[in-house]
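Issue: ligand-bound run for NAP - logging full I/O for the record.

Environment: standard queue, default settings, no custom constraints.

Inputs:
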Amino acid sequence: MTRIDALWPQAAEDLREEQILAAYAPPQVPWLRMNFVESLDGAVTREGLSGGLGGAADRRVFDLMRWWADVILVGAGTVRAEGYGAMRLSVDAASWRRAHGLAEQPVLALVSGRLDLDPSSPLFVEAPVRPLVLTVEEAPRRARERIAEVAEVVDAGTSVVDPTAARAVLADRGLGRIHAEGGPTLFGTFLAAGAVDELCLTLAPTLEAGGVGLIARSPESAPTAMRLAGILRGGDELLLRYTREAGDPQRSSASEDSSASEDSASSRIDAPLS
Ligand SMILES: NC(=O)c1ccc[n+]([C@@H]2O[C@H](COP(=O)([O-])OP(=O)(O)OC[C@H]3O[C@@H](n4cnc5c(N)ncnc54)[C@H](OP(=O)(O)O)[C@@H]3O)[C@@H](O)[C@H]2O)c1
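Outputs:
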């Protein structure tokens, strides 16, 4: 098992599973956490997949983060690229979840406007819980009918899925712990709508170059002030947790944020004790 240490806010060596889970407990409900891995130079994929970037520590934490989720939210592009299968967590995860008052398995919620999804995919037909598909009123009718046979299909917008409406759909179903696994289009739209509470970002120890895109993509920029909430380290990977600035439900400008932090104790620089 890959060793993972906590660096901040409290240093601790070789965390046990329970300690890692405790570090990722959602601070409140509802809570939308977005999870990504990127290279040191900001690449979001290698050869079209995120798996090429993430190492053993990323995979360990990626799996454990799912344990907390009422719902795993993912964009259709990621499902198609990464070949998602049925969302079934391990027996250990299911019993841990039961003991913590969660359903044994999370719901998988897909976001898609075109509904270009394969209804015979294991993602649907082998799912332990009927998946949810968040789509738009303008989605093609035939595709909607096909997907409705294997999933609950719900409109959350007219031509694009509106993140606020999507969160309301999840809240109505008691799915408050939202664990989002991207991709960049989904993250960009949710960020622009002020609908992301936390970013978990693994920095993979590699430089990729080659013009691969950002982890968040939206038609317009959406500066969002974030606060560092925790740092874990596994080998050469850093696992960072940032939460959206308190009291700033939408975006706050980058300039406001930098002046605020210069005035405060956050300009202090710490090094972990060895
Ligand atoms: N590094 C990482 O941690 C990480 C994480 C996730 C993904 N990725 C990578 O990112 C790439 C995929 O990027 P992507 O931007 O295409 O991913 P994406 O956000 O998962 O997928 C985009 C698609 O999702 C649907 N979608 C997302 N937001 C929507 C909205 N607000 N309204 C309606 N539909 C929405 C649309 O589906 P329809 O086309 O069906 O309408 C859209 O074409 C893959 O190569 C994947 O491996 C990397």
